[in-house]
Structure formats: C-alpha cells, structure tokens
Design goal:
- The chain is 54% helix and 13% strand.
- It is built from twelve helices and eight strands.
- It has an eight-stranded mixed β-sheet with strand order 3-2-1-4-5-6-7-8, sandwiched between helices.
- α7 crosses α12 and α8 packs across α9.
- The longest helix is centred in the C-terminal third of the chain and has 22 residues.
- The structure holds 1,4-dihydronicotinamide adenine dinucleotide (NAI) and (2S)-3,4-dihydro-2H-pyrrole-2-carboxylic acid.
- 1,4-dihydronicotinamide adenine dinucleotide (NAI) binds next to α1 and α4.
C-alpha cells in the first residue's frame, strides 16, 4: 500500500487525511508534518495518524503531499532539497506554485505533480485537477489520480490551466457557501426563523447539486424548469441580472485566477 505523508496539516491537509481514512486507507499508511505541535497532537488524537519530522516523512513515504500555504513554501523546499530525488514523488496542492519551482529547488529529476483539490474532500466529494511536471510520468499521474479518486473526482489538465482551475473549483466551494449565506439572510429579511431559513436553503442547495449531478441536464434547462411564465422566479432572475450577478461572478473568478498567477510569480526569482 502506498505510504502518504502530508506536509502541513491545516484545512486542506486535514481534509486529505480525513478523506483518505474515510476512503479506506489505514492510519498506519499515513503521516503528516505540522509546525504547530498543539495542532499536530490534536490531529493525531482525532485520526490516529502519526506526526513526523520532514526527514522521516521523506524516508518513509512514497508520496509527499505539500499542503502549506504558498507563502510558506521556501523553508519546506529547503528542507526537502537534500532528502529527495528521482525515486520520490512530490504532490503540490499549493495555489499558484508551478511545478518548475519545485524542479528548480529539488534534486534534478524529482517528479512533481501539481494538484488543485477543494475542501469537499472531507465528504469524499473533492474536485481535483492534476498536472504532471517535467519529470512526472504517466505512472506518477496514475498513482496520484488513484489516491485522489478515494476522495472525489479527478481530471487531468495541462499545467497552463491550473490558475483557472484554482479560481473555478479550488475556490469554488467558497462561492457556493457565500451564496447560501446570502440566501439565508434573505430568509431572515422575509421574517423566517433562522433555523427554518437554513434548512430551506441548504436542502435546496443539496437538491439542486444532486439534480445537476444526476439528471445530466444543462443548468439552463434546470433553471428554466423552475421559472414559470409570469411566476415568482422570473421576478427574482430579473433582479439578479439587474444587479449584475453574472458579471460579478465573471469578474470575481477572473480576480481569483489573477491572484493564483501572482502567487506563482512571487517565487519566480527563487
Ligand atoms: N483551503 C482550501 O480550500 C484549499 C487550499 N489549497 C492549498 O492548500 C494549501 C494549504 O491551504 P490551507 O490548508 O487552507 O492552509 P492552512 O493555513 O490551513 O494550512 C497550512 C498548514 O501548514 C502548516 N505549516 C506551514 N509551514 C509548515 C512547515 N514548514 N512544516 C510543517 N507544517 C507547516 C501550518 O501550520 C498549517 O497548519 C495552500 O497552498 C492552498 O493554496 C488548495 C485547494 C483548496
Ligand atoms: O484561497 C486560496 O488561496 C486557496 C486556494 C484555493 C482555495 N483556497
């Protein structure tokens, strides 16, 4: 069984560990590093997964998954550089960071696969996009895709598309949560008790997501089926269009893409 080390057990690192355990991986095949000892102890207690030093992770793990913030990557690369080589497999979950950065800073030939996952990983519903770096083979991509398929769906994209993917599905859950939050507020505005508004909106979100997933219908068709002539929905749609919600989403996702590019550029000289 593949041994996996997660380097940096924050939100996405924990989501991965938890998703892999739920997907049937044994805790003994997993390990993590974490710079905050209290956080490490909490995770070990909760999941039964060992916290280790980087050197230990590099020695014991077949796959090293980097899950620190892009701004914290430098010390991690410095630590890994003398420890890894062509036999290792590095997986980067970091927004914006190109595989070329790892290839520059790690030993020649170290295979790197860039992945953009998302937090629904905790419930086995991640969307992950994988892109091989220069030294990663089809077999490396297969290993990483298989690992990620335990925690959701996986697609392969050219690395040139990863900044767009980051803006779309990496950040995507946040947009849906934002929408749900705003719709619950609308329920409050209309005088509903908060608990009722939450139940109505969350179940509507779950139902809509399942319809998108299971009916194979285009979202426009599904939306039209709710929108009766001279009914209530079209009045709401008119307001959404008037307030530029579609344009706001285009601009928002473009801004997220730009930030991903910027995070990568910040490391261009290192
Ligand atoms: N949160 C999300 O929805 C997603 C995050 N990502 C990417 O995942 C990475 C992690 O993001 P989050 O989990 O949100 O951040 P986070 O801040 O929750 O987690 C990062 C963790 O790494 C630890 N850490 C930092 N430097 C370390 C070091 N040298 N050694 C050991 N541990 C170290 C921190 O203590 C922290 O627990 C980022 O690069 C982000 O771009 C990717 C997709 C989705
Ligand atoms: O906001 C971020 O930078 C990370 C990457 C994608 C989702 N969360």
């Amino acid at each position: 069984m593949t041994t996996i080390a997660v380097l940096g057990a924050g939100k996405i690192g924990e989501a991965l560990l938890s998703g892999l355990l739920q997907g049937g991986r044994s805790a003994k095949d997993l390990m993590f590093t974490e710079r905050h000892p209290e956080r490490a102890a909490e995770l070990t207690e909760h999941y039964g997964v060992a916290a280790v030093e980087v050197a230990d992770a590099a020695k014991r793990a077949d796959v090293l998954v980097v899950a620190v913030k892009p701004q914290d990557i430098d010390p991690v690369l410095d630590q890994l550089a003398p420890l890894l080589g062509a036999d290792s497999l590095v997986v980067s979950l970091c927004a914006g960071l190109p595989t070329a950065l790892y290839e520059r800073r790690l030993a020649e030939g170290t295979p790197v696969v860039r992945v953009m996952p998302n937090t629904p990983m905790v419930v086995g519903e991640a969307m992950s996009a994988v892109s091989p770096g220069r030294h990663a083979t089809a077999e490396h991509v297969r290993v990483v895709s298989e690992l990620l398929s335990c925690v959701g769906s996986v697609v392969e994209v050219p690395e040139s598309q990863q900044d767009a993917v980051t803006a779309l599905s990496g950040s995507g859950p946040a947009y849906f949560f934002f929408l749900v939050e705003a719709m619950i507020d609308a329920g409050i505005l209309l005088g509903l008790p908060r608990a009722v508004a939450e139940k109505l909106i969350i179940q509507s979100a779950v139902g809509a997501a399942k319809m998108l997933d299971r009916t194979d219908e285009h979202p426009v068709i599904l939306r039209e089926a709710v929108t009766s002539p001279a009914g209530t929905t079209i009045n709401a749609i008119r307001e959404l269009e008037k307030h530029g919600v579609r344009a706001a989403l285009l601009a928002a996702i473009e801004a997220a893409r730009d930030r991903s590019v910027e995070l990568g550029k910040a490391h261009e000289d290192h």
